[in-house]
Structure formats: C-alpha cells, structure tokens
Write a structure and sequence with these properties.
The complex is a heterodimer of chains A (442) and B (564).
Chain A lengths: L6 E2 L8 E8 L3 E10 L2 E11 L3 E2 L2 E2 L2 H19 L2 E2 L1 E6 L5 E10 L9 H11 L8 E13 L2 E4 L9 E12 H13 L3 E7 H9 L2 H6 L1 E6 L4 E7 L2 E8 L3 H11 L4 H11 L12 E5 L6 E5 H26 L8 E4 L8 H9 L3 E3 L13 H17 L11 H6 L1 H5 L11 H17 L1
Parallel strand pairs in A: 1-7, 2-8, 8-13, 14-19, 19-20
Antiparallel strand pairs in A: 2-3, 3-4, 5-6, 9-12, 10-11, 10-12, 14-15, 15-16, 17-18
Helix pairs in contact in A: 1-3, 4-10, 6-7, 6-8, 8-9
Chain B lengths: L1 H40 L2 H8 L6 H37 L3 H59 L1 H4 L2 H24 L3 H52 L9 H20 L6 H60 L4 H29 L5 H59 L7 H22 L5 H39 L7 H15 L3 H15 L3 H13 L1
Helix pairs in contact in B: 1-3, 1-4, 2-3, 2-4, 3-4, 4-6, 4-7, 6-7, 7-8, 7-9, 8-9, 9-10, 9-11, 10-11, 11-12, 11-13, 12-13, 13-14, 13-15, 13-16, 14-15
The chains are: A alpha/beta (442), B mainly alpha (564).
Chain lengths: 442, 564
C-alpha cells in the first residue's frame, strides 16, 4: 500500500504541501495528515494508537513507543492511501526552557534589500550564546524583526535596510529526552522534518490573537502530564509541566472501585463526570471487582467524587504554577484543552477553582474535533506558519533549515537510515551533510 | 328204640365231650409242666454264685440271704406244690371233674408266673449289684488321680486363689475323706451307698475343678481390672468436668462408688469359695460402664453440636427480623392499593408472634448455654426443636411473601419496566453527550424530552391510588415506543454524523485540486456544523462521487474495518 499513490512529506511534495504531525502522548500516539491550501489546513488523515511506552510525558520504553508510532502511522496511511515519509514531531516536558535572544547582522546584498539569507543569518546570530552541555537548542521563534530601528516587523524579506535585528525566543531542551524521541521516530522508519514545542502548537489552535496579547493561561491536561503555559503580548512567556494527568484519575478509580486499570479507564470515558453537582445519580453501571467475578454497582455521583477530587488537585497545582511563574491573575482567563476535556463537567469545576473566565478549546476541523488533537493540529499550523517566517520550505525537503542542524547531527550521522528514505535522499542528504560540515568546521 | 338211640346218642356225646375235655386238661398240664421245668432249669444258683465274689457282708449279705431264701423256698416248696396240683388236675380230669381241674390249673399258672417274676427280680437285682460295684470301682479309680491333680493345681495357683485356697483345700480333704469312706463302704459290702457317695464326690470334684480354673480370672477381674477401669472412668469424668462438660446429672461418681462396693462384696464372696452370680454381676458392671461411656460421648458430641450452632442462633434471628420487617413494609404498601383479607392480617400477626417466641426461645437457649446447669444433651434437644420451629416459620413467611408478591406483581413489573426505560433514556443522553457532535438536532431533543415526560407520567400512574393497572400499562407502552424511537433516531444520527465527517475528511484531499468540489465540501461542512448531518452527508457524498466514483463504497468498507 505504501507508495501506491504517492509519498507525503520529505522530498516529493509536488502537488501541494502536505504535512504530517506526530504527537507522542502518554496514553495515545496521534498522527494527523493535513493538506495546506489557501493558508488553511484540511485534515485528510488521522491515526491514533494506544501508547504504553510513555509515563508522565517521558519515554520509558523505546520499543513499545516505536510500535505505537508505527501503528498510528499505519492507520493514517491506510486512510489516505499514501506512505508517510517524514513527520513534524511535537515535544514537551519539564526539561524545556525558554530564553530571550537577540541577533544583529548587517544586510549583505549590495541593493540593501533583505533576502532569505539575511533572515537566516540573523536567526543564526541570535543563537550564539552559552548553553550548558546537556542542553540543546531546538528552535528559535522570532518575536519581531527590527530594520534600522523600526520594530514589530513580522517578515523583513523584500525590505530595504542596513541593519537587521531579530528579537525572539530561544527554545532549549534536555539532550537525552530529545534524543529518545528522535530515536523512536527514526526507529519507526520516519524522518524528522521539524521539531515543534507543544505549548506553541496548542496555542495555535486553542488561543485567539486577542487572548494571546491580553495574557492568557493555556492548560493542556493529557494522560500523563499537564502542561501550563502563559502567553502575553502575543508571545509565549513561560511554560511548565506538572506530572499529573488523566492516568492518575484512572488509577484513583481503579483503587476506589477495586477494579482493573482497563475497566477503570473505560468507566472514566463512558460514565466519568468531573462536577459533583451536575453528576446524575441515575447513571449507574456495573464494575467487576478485581480478582473475582463479583459485580458491584456504582453510579456517576460516586465516581464523580473521586474524579473531582483529583482534577481539583491538578487545578490547584496549575494555579500554584502560574503564581510561581509570577502571573497571579490572567486577564484573558484560562483556556483548557487536552484529552481530559472529554470528561463532562470539567469547565464548571475549573470555573469554581480558578474563579475567572474559563473555556475549553476543541479543534473544529472536520475529523479532529476532539481536544486530544489540539496539539497535533496545532503542530501542523504552527510548523507551516513558522516555516514561512524562518524561510524553511518543507515543499523541497528540509534544506535550509538552520536550527535543525543543531539537534540533528546524531540522527543525520546515524547510518541506519530507514531504507525507504534511501531513494529520494541523495540530493537532499548531500546538502544536509554539507550544512553539518559547515556548522562544525566553520 | 328211639329211646335207645337217644340214650345211645347221649352216651356217645357224653363220652366224646369227656374225651375232648380230658384232652384239653392234659394239654394244659403238659404245657405247665414244661413251663415249670423251664423255670427250674434257670441258672439262679449260678447267678447267685456271682454275688459270692463280693464282700458278703452288710447289705450284700442281707440281699444274698434273702435271694437264696426265696429261691430255696421256690425250689423246695413251690415246685413240689405245683407238681401235686398238676397231678390233682389230671386226676380230677379223669374223674370228669373238669371244674376243679381248671381251677387247679389256674392256680398253678398264677404260681408259676409269680415264680418267674421273682426269678427275674433276682436276676435284675444281682445284675444291678454287680454293676454298681464295678462302676463305682472304676469311678473311684479315676477319681483318685483327679483329686490329686486338683490339689496340685490348688497348690500351684495358691496365690491366685487368695483366701479361697483354704476353702478349696478343706473341700479337697473332705473329698479325700469321702473316698476313704467309700473304701470302707465297699469293704462292708454297701455297694449302693458307695456308688451314691462316689457320684457325689465326682460332681463336687468337678465343681471344685471348675472353680479352681475360674477363680484366678474372677479374682483378677474384681481386684484389679474392674477397679482400674472404674478409676479410669472416674478420672475421665473428672477431666470432662474440668473441661466444662456438664456430666453431674449422670450421677456417674456415685454409681462408680456403688460398683466398687459391689466388687468388694464379690471378693468377699469369692473368699468363701462361692462364685454364684459373680459372672453375672461383673457382666452388669461392665455393661454399665459401656453405657456410661456412651453417655459421656454423647454429651461431648452434643456440646460440640450446641457450640457450633450457637452463633447461628443470633444470625438467624437477626435475618428473620430483617426479612420480616421487609414483609411488614410490603404489607403496608399492599394495604394502600389492595384489599387484604382479614385472615392475612391474622397470619401476619401470627408470624410476628411466632418470631417473637422464637427469639425468646433463642435467648433462653443461649442463657442455658452460659449458665452451667443444663447438660448439653438436653440443650441440644431444645436447639434441634428450635431449628425445626424456625424452619417452619421461614417456610410460612416465604409463603406469605409470595402471596404479597403475587398481589403486587403487575405493579412491581411496571416499576421495573419504568426503571429500565429510565436507564435507556439516560444511556441515550449519555451517548449524545459523548458523541462529540457539534450539536444535537432539535427533533432528537424533543424526542428525548417526550420520552422522559412519558416515563414520568407512567411513574405517576403507578404511584396513584388506587392503582389502575390498565392505565399504567397503556402509558408504559407509549413510553416504551417513544424510548425505542429515541434510541433508534439517536443511533441513526450518530451513524450519519460519523459517516458525514469521514466523507468530508476523505474529500479534503481533493480540495486543492478541484475547486468545485472544495466549494461543495465547504457547504457540506457548513451543514454539518449546523447539525444537519443528513444534508451534509448527501452533499459531501455527491461531490465526492463526482470526483472519485466508488469512493463512498470504499469509505464504508474502511469504516466497517475500523469498527470491527
């Protein structure tokens, strides 16, 4: 089936831009295939697979994770009848740090017209700074360009100037964590096209421009971890991870109802309710006690007590985290997303706890209208937009991707490149290697 | 002439009769003569001679003398007398004195008969005398060694015989004396007496021998074995008492004391060499002991039984109280809607009374167990009786319950059905909530609300008093239909929505290359977001089919694949 109709991502991208995002979550691995046309993204394929190789948002078993990635990719490929070559990976975790950065270059061309090369150079220049050896630079997000003192320029290409400055956010992360993720992706036979920070991706879908500039807290509650991030003045200001999530609820239920984790998960999805006041007592169900064949009957109110307690705890941590970051009040309120938003009543509870405006963000794209896809879809949108600014062109492969070189030497140098990459690689690979060489021997 | 002939005939007849009669007498005489000779020839003298070997003293002498005298008399007088009588008879016959002849013959016959009798008697007596002499002699010969044998035994087992030994020795001496006396008697010719003595000695010796054999065992039994067993029994009883078994009512200790006394008495008796009834008494004691053991064992079993059942008492009473409370509640509920017969109230009252009695009795049994008075065997009887009563009560109660249930059957069924429908509608709402639809079409909401109203209505009808079963079932039927429709419609809409979404998603891939399709899909998406899934599905599929014929079929297959 693979390659029967065409190849997506990677080098062969002639019809239109088709991007693939890979979101490795604690409970599920999600693959979304989106086609970009007229600056909007149409989802044409989705694949999800149970993931068991992750705990609290970090990889604990590479083989299992690889297996899950392959399953999800297979599913998505079946849907679109095409083979996936390379993917945009979203990463997350408490090892991620944000840093302000600043780069200045002189415009090189004789006409003083700023071209792609100048932009690349200014981004490069901003990265020249001391970072600890166990950390690696993932990406630079330009906040604004300044041309000869004129600030708040989104895209300076084509402008005329002498001095080009860029102010942005430098994203660094732990080497090991990144290595693990990339290793998994490569072991699954995929090429890493780009790496994208989850809070940025999620914000792309979940937050509006106004919210971002007002100051808003984005809370993404997944299975293993909860990501909180704060946006102000249109940019990501801080992000942090709390190692609590939906899995904790499942475990609480399995302890409270004395049943297996699988059954607890099922009950959480089918009967779970986060707000005690609006739980329905008539909604009852049978539970098999672990180790026996006995059935016990519980109702929604009983499990709502358990679920509410845990989610309340998570929210308390979220509040604490925002206070720690130095944002005790959020003018734009809180926006919730992530797989846990499927549990009804969670917004009411959040309003009770946060005492301010709260909304749930759910993607409205056909095929991915579930909160768990926020990150995946956002990854596509963000990568597409960011590539345009940075001058990355996925359409012709991964050429000209400066930042990428920082963290891909290992993967680029590894000899065990998946076979199916081989045939379209030569041209691309040469350029890529050259860049690396340039980087090291410059 | 006639006279002459007549006289002649008479004479001839006379002569003939005379001749015949005479002949007859002669014949008789010959016969008797012969008998006499025969008697005379019997060896009476020889027979008497045999006696001569014996000591002709004392009794024997007397007898011998008398026999000889008798015989001599017969020989000397009787036979001559007989001879004379016979001659007389012959003479008389010759003189035609037949009457006298026959009389004489008769006398002779009698005499001869008597003689024969006497001779027979003498023979018999002699024979007896001879035999008695011989038998006693043989017996005496046999008895001698046996006496010494028994004496030896007595000497050898002296210690086993205890005080009875002396008695036995005296007896043996006595026997020995008797033997000597026998000798004397024999010597003095008193054979008969001797024989009697010998017989007596023999039986006494036999008895003595038996006693000598039996006494050691009896002594051991009465002095050691039985007392030990009795002591053991007493110890066992004591132990059981210490362990909390209730055995005093059996009066075992007193009885054991009596048995000990009896045994002492028996030993005393044995010391006198008497063992009459001893075996019997021992056997009695034995069997009593076995009986006591059985009783003790039974008590132990009963205690075990009672202890096992005791905790069940409370449990059962509590359970019964609970279930009866439920029954009472049921009666209250039934009373509101139905007419109950008076006898049913009586039955309820009866059940209550019985339960009360049962629980009182259970308390009494428990107090019996705690107060250490009643033996467990009697408690067990009470307990078993209680159990039987309790089972009977349970049966009665369940019958009563069944009766109530039958009365309320329709109502309960309706209630169950209402709950069922409620659950169904909740499921539908749950499904819709979980479906992730952008919105729920109004007609589905209306349908669900209608179903809920109907369920509420039927609920009200069921609670109405008096209950109108027909009306309830009518409303219920309506509600059932409505719920079924809601379920059906919901499933349909969910299916449609899922399919529509999938089709739009599939069609997305052609958007960039087919602007017409893109527009149509956008429209379909719009419908989708406005909850009009049917139209969305129609438009999207139509647009897709134009671009890729057969795509719908493919999508359907794929959906089925993922569903399965």
């Amino acid at each position: 089936m693979k390659g029967s109709e065409g190849l997506i991502g990677g080098a062969i991208m002639n019809r239109s831009e088709i991007l693939v995002s890979l979101d490795i979550g604690t409970s599920k691995v999600k693959v979304i295939i989106g086609e970009v046309s007229n600056d909007t993204i149409n989802v044409i394929g989705v694949g999800t697979a149970e993931s068991v190789g992750m705990k609290k948002g970090a990889i604990v078993d590479i083989d299992q994770t690889v297996h899950a990635i392959q399953n999800a990719v297979d599913q998505a490929e079946r849907m679109v009848d095409m083979a996936i070559k390379s993917v945009i990976v979203s990463i997350n975790g408490d090892h991620i740090a944000l840093q302000d950065c600043h780069g200045v270059v002189a415009v090189s061309s004789e006409t003083r017209e700023i071209n792609q090369e100048d932009v690349t150079r200014v981004i490069d220049a901003s990265q020249v700074m001391q970072i600890p050896p166990e950390r690696e630079i993932v990406d630079v997000i330009p906040r604004q360009f300044i041309v000869d003192g004129q600030d708040e320029i989104n895209d300076p290409r084509g402008m005329i100037g002498v001095r080009l400055e860029m102010q942005g956010t430098l994203i660094t992360c732990g080497k090991t964590n990144l290595h693990n993720i990339l290793k998994c992706v490569e072991r699954a036979g995929l090429q890493v096209q780009d790496i994208c920070l989850q809070p940025l991706a999620a914000a792309e879908v979940a937050l509006s421009r106004d919210e971002k500039s007002l100051g808003v807290g984005l809370v993404n509650i997944g299975a293993g971890s909860t990501t909180v991030s704060f946006y102000i003045d249109g940019n990501l200001a801080n992000t942090s991870v709390i190692p609590l999530g939906g899995d904790n609820i499942t475990k609480d239920l399995s302890i409270g109802l004395k049943t297996t984790t699988e059954e607890a998960e099922q009950i959480k999805l089918e009967h779970g309710h986060a707000y005690l006041n609006s739980a329905i007592e008539d909604n009852s169900f049978n539970v098999t006690t672990i180790g026996t064949d006995d059935k016990q009957t519980f109702n929604q109110v009983q499990i709502a007590e358990i679920i509410e307690a845990r989610i309340d705890e998570i929210f308390q941590f979220v509040l604490q985290e925002f206070r720690r970051m130095g944002y005790p009040t959020l003018p734009g309120g809180y926006v919730l997303t992530g797989g846990l938003m499927q549990v009804p009543g969670i917004v009411d509870l959040a309003r009770d706890v946060f005492q301010t405006n709260v909304r749930v963000a759910i993607p409205s794209h056909i095929g991915v209208r579930e909160p768990q896809f926020t990150v995946g879809l956002g990854t596509l949108q963000f990568a597409y937009r960011n590539a345009k600014i940075q001058g990355k062109d996925y359409g012709v492969g991964i050429e000209g991707h400066q930042v990428k070189q920082e963290q891909t030497p290992k993967s680029a140098n590894t000899k065990d490149k998946p076979k199916r990459k081989a045939k379209e690689e030569p041209v691309d690979k040469e350029g890529f290697m050259k860049k690396i060489q340039n980087y090291f021997f410059d | 002439m006639e006279y002459i002939i007549g006289i002649l005939v008479v004479v001839i007849a006379f002569i003939l009769v005379g001749v015949i009669m005479r002949r007859k007498v002669y014949n008789s005489v010959d016969k008797l003569e012969q008998w006499k000779v025969q008697l005379m020839s019997r060896q009476v003298a020889d027979e008497l001679g045999k006696v001569r070997h014996l000591n002709l003293t004392g009794e024997t002498e007397e007898l011998f003398e008398s026999w000889r005298n008798e015989w001599d008399e017969i020989n000397d007088y009787v036979f001559t007398e007989v001879e004379e009588f016979l001659l007389d008879a012959e003479e008389a016959a010759e003189k035609y004195k037949f009457g006298k002849a026959s009389r004489t013959l008769k006398t002779v016959e009698q005499k001869l008969y008597k003689v024969e009798q006497t001779i027979d008697d003498i023979f018999e007596e002699v024979d007896r005398l001879l035999h008695s002499e011989q038998d006693s002699r043989e017996e005496a010969e046999k008895l001698h060694p046996r006496i010494s044998e028994v004496r030896k035994k007595v000497l050898q087992n002296g210690y086993q015989l205890g005080k009875a030994e002396v008695v036995f020795e005296v007896e043996l001496d006595d026997l020995q004396n008797d033997m000597n006396q026998y000798e004397e008697l024999t010597n003095s010719g008193n054979y008969t007496e001797a024989q009697e003595l010998i017989h007596n000695v023999k039986s006494r010796l036999h008895e003595l021998d038996r006693k000598v054999n039996v006494f050691p065992d009896l002594y051991r039994m009465c002095k050691h074995t039985l007392p030990e067993e009795l002591d053991q029994l007493q110890n066992g009883v004591k132990e059981m008492k210490d362990d909390g078994f209730r055995v005093q009512h059996l009066g075992v200790e007193k009885e054991i004391q009596t048995h000990h006394e009896t045994l002492l008495a028996i030993v005393e008796q044995l010391n006198k060499g008497i063992d009459d009834g001893v075996e019997n008494q021992i056997e009695q004691i034995r069997s009593r002991m076995i009986e006591i053991y059985d009783q003790l064992e039974k008590e132990a079993f009963d205690k075990n039984f009672v202890m096992q059942k005791q905790p069940l008492l409370d449990e059962k009473v509590d359970k019964a109280n609970e279930s009866f409370a439920a029954t009472k509640e049921n009666v209250m509920a039934v009373k509101e809607n139905y007419h109950l017969k008076d006898e049913k109230y009586e039955e309820q009252y009866e059940l209550e009374k019985n339960l009360d009695q049962l629980s009182k009795k259970a308390t009494r049994i428990k107090s019996m167990i705690t107060h250490e008075e009643q033996p467990y065997s009697s408690i067990r009887l009470d307990l078993e009786e209680w159990q039987k009563d309790f089972e009977a009560w349970e049966e009665k109660q369940s019958k009563f319950d069944a009766h109530l249930y039958n009365l309320r059957k329709d109502e309960l069924n309706s209630r169950e059905q209402i709950n069922d429908l409620k659950q169904k509608i909740i499921n539908v709402r749950q499904k819709l909530q979980k479906s992730n639809l952008p919105g729920i079409p109004n007609y589905i909401i209306d349908l669900v609300n209608q179903a809920r109203d109907l369920i509420e209505q039927s609920n009200e009808k069921v609670n109405e008093q008096p209950l109108d079963v027909d009306e309830v079932s009518r409303v219920l039927e309506e509600a059932d239909k409505c719920v079924a429709r809601a379920v059906e419609q919901t499933n349909l809409i969910l299916e449609q929505a899922e399919f529509a979404e999938y089709v739009i998603q599939y069609a997305n891939r052609y958007r960039s290359s087919y602007p017409v399709l893109a527009a149509k899909i956008a429209e379909a998406e719009d419908h989708f977001r406005r909850n009009d899934y049917e139209t969305a599905l129609e438009q999207a599929s139509q647009a897709l089919e134009e671009v890729e014929p057969g795509a719908l079929k493919k999508i359907e297959d794929q959906l089925k694949l993922t569903a399965s």
